[in-house]
Amino acid sequence: MSSIPVTVLCGFLGSGKTTLLNHLLSQSKDRKIAVIVNEFGEINIDASTIVHTDEKTIELSNGCICCTLRGDLLEAVDDLLKTRELDHIVIESTGIGEPLPIAQSFCLTPEELDLDPGLPNLLGKVHIDAMVTVVDAAQFFEMYHRPGTIEGDDLERGYGQLLQEQLEFANLVVLNKLDVATPEDVQKLEEFIALTNPRAKVLKSIRGVIPIEDILSVELFDFEEMSQLDSWMLELEKEHTPESETYGLGTYIYRTQAPLDLDRLYDILEQGLPRNIIRSKGWLNTGSDVATLWNHTGRFLTLEPMGEWNNPAEAFTELVFIGQDLDGAEIEDLLSSALTVLR
Ligand SMILES: [Zn+2]
Predict the structure, then answer these.
(1) How far is CA 87 from CA 55, 98, 222, in A?
(2) How close is the Cα of 268 to the center of ligand 1, in Å?
(3) What residues have a C-beta under 5 A from ligand 1, the ion?
(4) Separation of 335 CA from ligand 1 center, angstroms?
(5) What mean pLDDT do residues 140-148 have?
(6) How far is the CA of 179 from the centre of ligand 1 (A)?
(7) Which keywords does this Swiss-Prot/TrEMBL entry list (predicted)?
(8) Is the pLDDT of residue 235 over 90?
(9) Of 109, 3, 7, 115, which Cα lies nearest the Cα of 70?
(10) Could you tell me if 191 and 279 are in contact, meaning their C-beta atoms sit under 8 angstroms apart?
(11) Same domain, 93 and 215
(12) pLDDT tens-digit map of 99-131
């Protein structure tokens, strides 16, 4: 039996995932497509997490397939493979699902996933065709900068954090709701994707209307590539990205070897980063043996100790900023005031 392609649909609540899915199914013709839908947060009276809603749809509920229901997901797919003839499986994630852990479930063994080794090992039986993220092109940046954490999210993630995650790990990004988005919204979003996920293919749609051939059996997924942390940062570090002519989204890279004083940095960050910075990420040398990861999306900035430098003598700070009409000198000034004064 040959390996069955799996397409994963991600996208925030209201982005139009379900509409897109229904449109795909309406074009399936003689293609045998099974669907796994992850419902979470909706009222569900059934105690079981796996519900067969019709002959080709399985619903996974009472949890999230990217974390708590990873084992159930493996079982649901295994069940589909055993009970029917299939050409394709489409998985619709919840609005707060993260693409990477869902993809991992089909690229690693249950042991490697830290799950019960008795769960079905699907390697060789299925493979990911593409990770697809649907985006509400009209509201993307407004949501990205929304303060506070996502309602109902146990992990207390910020809106920008999750939206970024969903964008960065997609092979295909569908800019949906083009009928209500302004040309500026769309342009800015396209430039933002070109910077943060240069390898993604971008499709545009109104009410999820896209030819099925553009989404299914496109063979765009590459696990090695996806697992490579921060490929977009490496890309930006490699070459100079000119400011885009049209919308003015550009990048600025701050580099220094001198350590930054964390207390002083916190004082500066209290005041907030310049408003035109949308996203920034990189490494901080705080003068200790431990490298700190700076990760900023929208209203969220985390500084997280990640592990020891390979060589503390070569510790460095390197931060990539993405924003609109960035002022390099302003960023330089801001951060330089946190540099530790050499004695
Ligand atoms: Zn999850």
Answers:
(1) 15, 25, 20
(2) 33
(3) 64, 66-67
(4) 35
(5) 93
(6) 31
(7) Chaperone, Hydrolase, Nucleotide-binding
(8) no
(9) 115
(10) no
(11) yes
(12) 989 999 999 999 999 999 999 999 999 999 999
Task: Report how far residue 49's alpha carbon sits from residue 60's, in angstroms, rounded to the nearest whole number.
Answer: 5
pLDDT digits (tens, 9 = 90+) for 63-93: 889 988 999 999 999 999 999 899 999 999 9
- Mark whether 288 and 188 lie in a shared domain: no
Answer yes or no: do 221 and 248 share one domain.
no
Beta carbons of 301 and 295 less than 8 angstroms apart: yes
Last residue of a domain, one of 195, 228, 261: 228
Strand partners, 135: 175
Q: Is residue 324 part of a domain?
A: yes
The label of the residue with tokens 């003689």 reads: 30
Its domain, for residue 243, covers 236-336
How far is the centre of ligand 1, averaged over its atoms, from the C-alpha of 40 (Å)?
10
State in Å: Cα 324 to ligand 1 middle.
Answer: 32
Residue 342 lies in a domain: no
- pLDDT at residue 178 above 70? yes
The domain spanning residue 158 has which CATH number? 3.40.50.300
Residue 131 CA to chain centroid, in angstroms? 10
Q: Pairing between strand 277-285 and 317-324?
A: antiparallel
Distance 5 CA to ligand 1 centre (A): 22
User: How many angstroms does the Cα of residue 95 sit away from the middle of ligand 1?
Assistant: 10
Residue 332 sits in the same domain as residue 309: yes
Residues 315 and 247 grouped into a single domain:
yes
* 230 pLDDT tier (thresholds 50, 70, 90): low
Q: Tell me how far the alpha carbon of residue 193 lies from the centroid of ligand 1, in angstroms.
A: 23
Ligand 1 centroid–CA 267 distance in Å is 34
Angle between helices 159-168 and 183-196 (to 10 degrees): 70
- Residue 237 scores a pLDDT above 90: no
Residues 315, 222 share a domain: no
| 70 CA from centroid of ligand 1 (Å) | 9
**216 lies in the same domain as 254:** no
Pick the range with the lowest mean pLDDT from 25-34, 54-63, 325-334.
54-63
**Domain final residue pick, 193, 228, 263:** 228
Q: Please give the mean pLDDT across all residues of the chain.
A: 88
224 and 248 share one domain: no
C-alpha of residue 244 to centroid of ligand 1, in Å: 35
| Cα 186 to middle of ligand 1, angstroms | 28
Question: pTM of the prediction?
Answer: 0.88
